[in-house]
Each structure stands twice: as C-alpha cells, then as structure tokens.
Amino acid sequence: MTAPVLGRVAHLVRHPVKSAGYELVETAALVPGAAFPFDRVWAVAHAAARLTDPPGWAEKLQFLRGWGSAELMAIRCRSVPEAGEITLGHPRRPTESFRPDDPADAARLIDWLRPLWPANRPEPARVIRVPGQALTDQDQPLISINSTASLADLSERMGQALSIHRFRGNIWVEGWAAWAELGLVGQEIGIGTARLRVEEPIGRCRATGANPETGMQDADTLAALEAGYGHTDFGVFARVIEGGTICSGDEVRT
C-alpha cells in the first residue's frame, strides 16, 4: 500500500559557515549518519574559545553565533562546495568570496566578520573545520526539519511575517498541519529516496528574534512561543537512516 503523503519539500537550506550565511539549494544528497550536506562546515571561534588541539566538535558558546550578534543573521551565502569556496553578502558589508581552508582567506573572512560582531565580546579569532564533523549546535549528525504552516501560524500570532531564515532550518515542509511535526518524534519519514527518523523537538534561542533582512532584533519569538504554545520549540531534529537524494517539491511520507 502506498504510504500517505504528509506534505512536500518547500525549501532546502544550508549554512556553510556556522551563524554566518544561509543559502537555498534545490537538491541534497543525504548520507546515513551525516548532517545536511555542506552545512556548518566551518565555524569562527572567538578569542576566548576553549578548543581541543586539534579542534573537534565544540559547544556553540565557543563560536560567533546569532545569539551574540543579530547582525550575523543578515549574512547571505553562495557556495561552490567542490572548490571549498563561499561568497558572503550583507546589507552593510561588501560582497566577497573566500576559501576558508586557505589561511590567508581565513584571515580575510575574520576581518570581514569583525564589524558585525559586538566590540564588547571576545573578537573573532580563528576559522575552525573538523573533517567529517558538522559544527552544528549538537554533537550528533542531525538535520533540522521545519514546517511552513507552523511558521505561518506563529507569524499570525505575532502580527508580522517571519522569514524561514530566522530558524536556520535545513528542510522546510509545506502541506502538513501547523505543529504536526512535533507529533512525529520517534517516527520515520521518507523524503525523495532518503529515510529519516525524527528524534526530538528543537529548542530555540534569542537568535530567532533577528530579522535576516536587516540584521536587527525586531521580534520576541521566544515570548510568543511560550505564551502561545507553552514551550519554545520550533521544528524537529531528524537522523538520516537511509541515504538518498532529496529535492524541492519531493513528497514527505510516513
């Protein structure tokens, strides 16, 4: 019997540098036991970071992040994964291209980010990459899945249109009921030729209050979530259990 269609993929998004740029893509090849492709490949550690030598996965407190600077949330990205190259843009910064694995380009990237980071916080100091390890907020290889219906419901409650890029998700699904994704924890879903197991809700932080168009805090998303739904969760984490290619428009099935 054909599995019921829950929805369809509305957007696929990756973030090559942690907290520094979002990029829409049309397709992604998911691999069991791996994060979303080319997502959080690099992170920028600040001067007070406590890292191992050589660096491994580390908690988000060691890196530049949207919680610490709303300005970072307005960075846009284009990337060429096979070349290890990213191009970053921002309303108040020149558009520039970098190869973060190159020491000279890593230094340029830090200089580019410096004006977007508060002067009263430890300054950007070092570009980190851990081969085979995405520098996500979790040490587990999880992919974030979000719902456009939940976003629309939260936007209506708040009286303002909220961009998907506030939430730094990888897969956005349209067609299922608002907040239905929270009821999928512990279940498996199929997307394209891949299969994922939904693991847990995503607890959110103050970074979601920043407008990705302006880089300014303009929405108390946490208060709205707590007042409206009794929690500050938005979206779910899932683990790839069967690899495959997913594309915008793909059906999402149980």
Beginning-to-end CA distance, first to last residue: 12 Å
Mean pLDDT: 96
Considering DSSP H and I runs of 4 or more, what fraction of the residues is helical?
10-25%
Give the radius of gyration. Answer: 18 Å
Report on this structure.
It is a single chain. With 254 residues, this protein is mainly β. It is 12% helix and 35% strand. The chain has helices at 103-113, 148-158, 221-229; strands at residues 5-14, 23-25, 27-30, 42-46, 76-80, 85-90, 93-98, 124-129, 143-147, 171-174, 188-191, 194-203, 210-211, 216-217, 233-242, 244-247, 251-253. Strands 1-10-9-15-12-11-17 form a 7-stranded mixed barrel. Strands 5-6-7 form a 3-stranded antiparallel sheet, covered by helices on one side. Strand 6 (85-90) and strand 7 form a beta hairpin.
Short description:
The chain is mainly beta. The protein has three helices and 17 strands. Helices cover 12% and strands 35% of the residues.
